[in-house]
Amino acid sequence: MTKPVLYITRRLPAAVEARANRDYQVRQNPEDVPVTPADILRNAEGADAIICCPAEKLDAATIAALPASVKAIATYSVGFDHVDVAAAKARNIPVGNTPEVLSVATAEIALLLILVAARRAGEGERVVRAGKWTGWAPTQLIGTHVAGKKLGIFGLGRIGRELMKLVRGFDMEIHYRDQQKLPDTLAQGAIFHDNDDSFLAASEVLSLHAPGGEGTRKWLNAERIAKLPKGAVVVNTSRGTSIDDTALIAALKSGHVAAAGLDVYDGEPKLNPGYLGLENVVLLPHLGSANAVTRDAMGTRALDNIDAALAGKPMPFPAG
Amino acid sequence: MAKPRVVVARRMPREVEARVREDYDTWFPAGPPPSPLAMVGAAKEHKADAVTIATNLKLSADIIEALPKHVKIVASFGVGFDHIDVAAAKAKGLIVTNTPDVLTDCTADLAFLLILGASRRAGEYEALMRKGWREALGDRLGVKVSGKTLGIVGLGRIGRAVAQRARGFGMKVLYTDLARLPGELEQGATFVPRLQDLLRQSDIVTLHAPLTDATRKLMDKDAFAAMPAGSVFVNAARGGLVDEDALHDALKSGHLFAAGLDVFASEPEYDLRFRDLPNTFLMPHAGSATQETRNAMGFRVLDNVDAVLSGRPPIDPLWS
Question: What ipTM was assigned to the predicted interfaces of this complex?
Answer without folding.
Answer: 0.79
